[in-house]
């Protein structure tokens, strides 16, 4: 039983100037039963025909000059031990080493199994892929421990001020290759970015010293340091908003307005947002967001676009019924908020200072409240205005010019009424049980122009009744005006202009008076003849 085979660590490492022991065992077929077993090590190739450098021999003989005094076959091939000791190490010794067994005669065998030597100038400092602020981190300093006469001693440098620091040391053996591992644990802070931490290795009975260090790359969630920009800008102006942030890795910077991304740029320390011509629609909250894989942070600012008041807008009914309350609101958009006034002529009837709207209120409307009003909005950037009319509906009011005046043998009666909506005007003759209205041949309608309100205007209607022929002594004429809100009725008085005596005494009295005058003239004429 048995076969040609060798066991050795596939890789070993050692510090330059130190040594390394390569443990090695080999086997061969049992039936060979050699009287003596020799061995040697080759460098770079297992095949003698390639003339590889001879590293070491179990029997006296020449070795390559590079290995003279620096390599020794420590094991006894007779007991199948092929262990090799190399040292002091230097970079040119790094490479592959092969063992060849010599059992005499043709029983020589180069094993394909080999070990690869790595010569280190410094310890291996293992740093985690990411060192994140606030998250515990662990550094490892790995030192080869394959030189039996020189056990390494490891210490840490730059670790004194690390928060929550702890140290531990252990020995690891991987496939026959030993190493000392020193562990340094701590909780990094963002301020430690760039701080150097290292491990130092010394060997006993030697002046050799090795060190490796690393500048900590502490990653941390981003922070927006500052947002800048004017709190207020005039409409049409050019505005630039600025944002600066820090983070590791450098964050993605974005400007938002609400959910909308206005601009973004990855891996930059600052980001500016340019608004070429601002309008009121640009007013609002602008947020700068910094984001990397460790977190997100934002800061906001408010931008107000100042502008002159826009044309006022009314809200409320401009038609009311007399006695009802009036509430008309006039509002105008502007920034800053305007001074709002409502005036009737030169009289200011409502005011609101730095408010978005003003309300004209009347507890109980009267016809006198009807007419034109002017709402004006002003701020330091300009002004605008809006004229509006309030119409007050009211029941008919009969006007003083309503009367009857004798004309010739008849009379002319006037019925004038003011109302909104316009009234229907008619005449009543109770003694005849007759109502005379528009459409009757003796009725005429006149509507003079003017301003709304009692007296004249669109709300004033004048009806004229012409009475022909002899008037009855006790004739009564009533003036009647009606609209949706009520009815007004009154008896018209007869108006007798001065100098018309017969108009005062009536038609019969006039005849009698005329006869008396004739008789008086005749009497005076006869008296003169005598």
What does this structure look like?
The protein has 530 residues and is mostly beta strands. It has 6 domains: 5-120, Immunoglobulins (Immunoglobulin-like, Sandwich); 124-216, Immunoglobulin-like (Sandwich), CATH 2.60.40.10; 220-306, Sandwich (Immunoglobulin-like), CATH 2.60.40.10; 313-394, Immunoglobulin-like, CATH 2.60.40.10; 399-491, Immunoglobulins (Immunoglobulin-like, Sandwich); 498-530. The strands form 10 sheets. Strands 28, 30, 31, 33, 34, 35, 36, 39 and 40 form a 9-stranded mixed sheet that branches. Strands 2-10-9-5-6 form a 5-stranded mixed sheet, with no helix packed on it. Strand 9 (95-102) and strand 10 form a beta hairpin.
Number of strands: 42
For the report, how would you describe the main beta sheet?
9 strands, mixed
Helix percent band: under 10%
Count of domain modules: 6
Number of helices: 1
- SSE-based structural type: mainly beta
Please identify which CATH superfamily of the largest domain we are dealing with. Immunoglobulins
Please state the overall shape, judged from the principal axes of the Cα atoms. Answer: rod-shaped
Q: Estimate the mean pLDDT confidence.
A: 90
Percent of residues in β-strands: over 45%
- Poorly predicted runs are 449-456, 499-530
What is the CA-CA span between the terminal residues? 205 Å
The second-level CATH architecture of the largest domain is Sandwich
Biased composition (Basic and acidic residues): 162-174
Domain Ig-like: 222-304, 309-391
GO cellular component, one term: plasma membrane
Region (Disordered): 145-176
């Amino acid at each position: 039983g048995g076969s040609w085979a060798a066991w050795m660590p596939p890789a070993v490492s050692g510090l330059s100037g130190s040594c390394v022991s390569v443990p090695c065992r080999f086997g061969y077929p049992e039936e060979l039963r050699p009287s003596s077993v020799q061995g040697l090590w080759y460098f770079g190739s297992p095949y003698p025909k390639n003339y590889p450098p001879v590293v070491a021999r179990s029997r006296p003989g020449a070795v390559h000059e590079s290995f003279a005094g620096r390599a020794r076959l420590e094991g006894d091939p007779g007991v199948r031990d092929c262990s090799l000791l190399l040292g002091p190490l230097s970079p040119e010794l790094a490479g592959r080493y092969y063992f060849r067994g010599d059992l005499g005669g043709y029983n020589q065998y180069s094993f394909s199994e080999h070990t690869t030597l790595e010569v280190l100038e410094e310890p291996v400092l293992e740093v985690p892929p990411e060192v994140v602020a606030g998250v515990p981190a662990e550094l490892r300093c790995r030192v080869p421990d394959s030189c039996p006469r020189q056990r390494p001693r490891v210490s840490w440098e730059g670790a004194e001020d690390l928060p929550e620091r702890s140290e531990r040391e252990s020995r690891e053996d991987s496939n026959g290759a030993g190493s000392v591992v020193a562990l340094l644990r701590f909780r990094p802070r963002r301020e430690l970015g760039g701080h150097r931490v290292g491990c130092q290795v010394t060997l006993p009975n030697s002046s050799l010293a090795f060190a490796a260090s690393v500048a900590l790359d502490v990653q941390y969630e981003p922070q927006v340091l500052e947002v800048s920009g004017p709190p207020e800008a005039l409409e049409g102006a050019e505005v630039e908003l600025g944002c600066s942030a820090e983070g590791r890795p450098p964050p993605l910077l974005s400007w938002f307005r609400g959910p909308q991304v206005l601009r973004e740029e990855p891996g930059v320390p600052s980001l500016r947002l340019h608004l070429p011509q601002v309008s009121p629609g640009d007013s609002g909250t602008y947020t700068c967001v910094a984001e990397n894989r460790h977190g997100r942070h934002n800061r906001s600012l408010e931008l107000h676009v100042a502008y002159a008041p826009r044309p006022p807008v009314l809200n409320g009914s401009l038609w009311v019924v007399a006695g009802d309350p009036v509430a008309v609101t006039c509002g105008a958009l502007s920034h800053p908020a305007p001074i709002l006034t409502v005036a009737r002529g030169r009289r200011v009837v409502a005011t609101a200072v730095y408010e978005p709207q003003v309300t004209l209120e009347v507890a109980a409307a009267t016809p006198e409240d009807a007419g034109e009003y002017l709402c004006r909005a002003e701020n330091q950037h300009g002004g605008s205005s809006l004229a509006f009319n309030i119409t007050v509906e009211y029941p008919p009011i009969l006007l003083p010019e309503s009367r009857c005046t004798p004309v010739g043998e008849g009379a002319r009666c006037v019925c004038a009424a003011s109302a909104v909506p316009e009234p229907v005007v008619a005449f009543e003759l109770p003694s005849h049980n007759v109502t005379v209205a528009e459409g009757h041949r003796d009725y005429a309608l006149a509507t003079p122009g003017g301003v709304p309100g009692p007296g004249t205007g669109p709300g004033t209607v004048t009806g004229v009744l012409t009475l022909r022929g002899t008037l009855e002594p006790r004739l009564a004429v009533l003036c009647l005006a009606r609209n949706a809100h009520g009815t007004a009725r009154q008896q018209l008085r007869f108006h007798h202009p001065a100098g018309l005596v017969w108009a005062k005494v009536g038609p019969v009295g006039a005849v009698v008076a005329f006869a008396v005058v004739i008789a008086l003239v005749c009497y005076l004429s006869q008296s003169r003849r005598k």
